[in-house]
Amino acid sequence: MRPGSYDFGRDMYFAGIGASGFVMGAIKTVEAPGSGGLSLRYAAFMQGLRDAIDARIRTALDGDQRAIATALLTGRRDAISPPVNDAMFISGLGHVLSISGYHMAVVAGVVFFAVRALLALIPGLTVSFPIKKWSAAAALAAAAFYLLLSGAEVATQRSFFMTAVVLIAVMVDRRAVTFRTLAVAAMIVLTIAPEALVHPSFQMSFAATLGLVALVQIGMPRLFAAPDDSATARVALWGGREIAMLALASLVAGLATTPYAAFHFHRVTPYGLLANLAAMPVVSAVVMPAGLLGLVAMPFGLDGVFWRLMGVGIDWMIVVTQWVAALPGAIGRMAAFGIGPLIAASVGIILLGLLRTPLRWSGAAVLMLAAVWALAVPQPDVLISADGHNVGVRGKDRRLHLMRTAKDAFLLKEWLAADADGRQPADPALAEGVSCDEAGCVTQLADGALVALALRPDALAEDCERAALVVTARQAPPACPVIDQDRLRRQGALALRRTRDGFAVVAVRPKGVDRPWSPAVAGAAEDETALVSRPAVGRPMDATPSEADLQAEE
Q1: How far apart are CA 452 and CA 473, in angstroms?
Q2: What is the β-pairing status of strands 469-472 and 482-483?
Q3: Sheet of 502-507: strands edge to edge?
Q4: Mean pLDDT by 10-residue block, N- to C-terminus, for the chain (554 residues)?
């Protein structure tokens, strides 16, 4: 969509998808093939299992209740309504919809304690056999089944490997929650899927887990320890310690994932702690256990009551998300910034998490430096889509104004989000200051220079004389400061920043970069990182335009 944005082609390449498109005509149901590979039969079996679970949930729940229940158990999130989905992410509860460490811990924990409690009812087993290790083995089997049922996304893989290492440590009498556990999980994930390193789920999952492990390492339970007769002990008796630990864990995990959420999704969640404190106890104590009991009861036809109980908890979660999302300032927008501030923030998180001496607080200084760096990154003055049909120009009001010959709401939504602009693609204000006719469109940069989108040859000649930048699909004169279709075909979408001599150009596919999912195109010029332009209408760039000049430009 723009330089530095999410690369769909890269993910499709590693997923083994060679092309995408649309199917025309009616969908027909045909018989399944009688024979096929093991992977095909496995995929068909798991998909059938997910469909069966969704069908059973549908008998008791509907709407967003059913969609969220299905998402929590099977990983399918496509049926959640856009308002609720947006509210979940704005409020900071979007992580609930992505099956990751929290869900895996709940599943393994519930199975572990349930099996251990049942085995403890038999005195002979308690005395003679290691029921704790048996319980860990049962929890590991349940976690593996949940991994397969949910589709085994990167975040789910990471959480499963973390959970597996912890449970195996219990079975071999070793300490479970350590940085080594996290490191082993990271190595396993990167061995299986090295491309996961640049994916937001990998980065956010490991950052949050690093913060939580560091919290445990410094003795989180001891932070709230006190003599039995103290006021703190009386508060702890009523659950105060658990609430404080939940608040601290939510705060640490939220802060650790903030740089990655800002980089990938261009937003932060100011009230994430409030939403997590209000909703997560209900999700942990009601929603997830009821879902697990529903899965166990499904073969016996006794699952309806558990789905309805799960729906009650989901209703509370939706109420919390919508309330928090409606609070003033709940939508924290962040303009796009480069990978440099993100790397600096990662270094700061690692220093804070891994160091044991007071030197660890140098990580806080690095994080502050990364935040200042991210806020100081200049935004592009011109954005050009890969097909040349959409051009965004930053005007005197420092906001984007759009010239377009084709509607692309998804592209415009990405551009506006990366610009920390809350307007919608259909907002008429996006076209303010843009003049269009059959020959093309023209608008002004912040310094008064013109940017033109030329559609016809007769307009191209005039635009080349008057505009500082011309975007066209036509063949332009040699001296024209033009971005044409040949260049867009070679380099993809472009971001341009105004300089003293013209424009500095950043491309999706810069010269010399050749990737399997984005192969280089032959014919690139020696230097395509700059574009020389001229002042608009033949006057100095800082001169005040006359009325005749403005009429001529119009």
Answers
A1: 12
A2: parallel
A3: 400-404, 390-394, 382-384, 494-498, 502-507, 530-532
A4: 89 87 86 70 84 89 90 85 90 83 84 91 85 92 90 77 86 81 86 88 87 80 54 55 76 89 90 88 88 90 91 94 91 90 95 89 94 93 91 92 87 92 88 88 90 85 86 78 86 90 88 85 63 50 39 44
C-alpha dist (Å) from residue 357 to 97, 354, 361 = 37, 9, 9
CA-CA distance, 450 to 471, in Å (whole number)? 11
CB atoms within 10 A of CB 70: 24
The SS3 call for residue 244 is helix
CA distance 204 to 165: 20
Question: Which H or E run contains 142?
Answer: helix 131-149
Closest CA to 508 of 480, 524, 488, 526: 488
Q: What are the residues facing 390 on neighbouring strands?
A: 404
CA distance 80 to 70: 10
CB–CB of 391/385 below 8 Å?
A: yes
Q: Which helix (H) or strand (E) holds 453?
A: strand 450-454
Q: Give the span between the Cα atoms of 450 and 443, in whole angstroms.
A: 6
383 has which bridge partners?
392, 495
Q: Among candidates 410, 256, 418, 399, which has minimal Cα distance to 333?
A: 418
CB 297 within 8 A of CB 308: no
Look at residues 245, 264, 213 and name the one whose alpha carbon lies nearest to residue 98: 264
CA 56, 57, 58, 60: dihedral to nearest 10 degrees? Answer: 100
Are the beta carbons of 367 and 349 closer than 8 angstroms? yes
Find out whether 509 and 522 touch, Cβ atoms under 8 Å.
no
Please list, in sequence order, all residues whose beta carbon lies within 8 angstroms of the beta carbon of residue 410, skipping any fewer than 6 positions away.
1
Helices assigned H by DSSP within 326-423? 339-354, 362-376, 409-418
What pTM was computed for the model? 0.82
Terminus-to-terminus CA distance in the chain, angstroms?
Answer: 30
Sign of CA dihedral 503, 504, 509, 514: positive
Domain boundaries, the chain: 38-92+281-334, 100-268, 339-376, 382-553
Helix (H) or strand (E) holding 126: helix 123-128
**The pairing of beta strand 400-404 with beta strand 482-483:** unpaired
Q: How far apart, in Å, are the Cα atoms of 334 and each of 268, 269, 499? A: 7, 11, 24
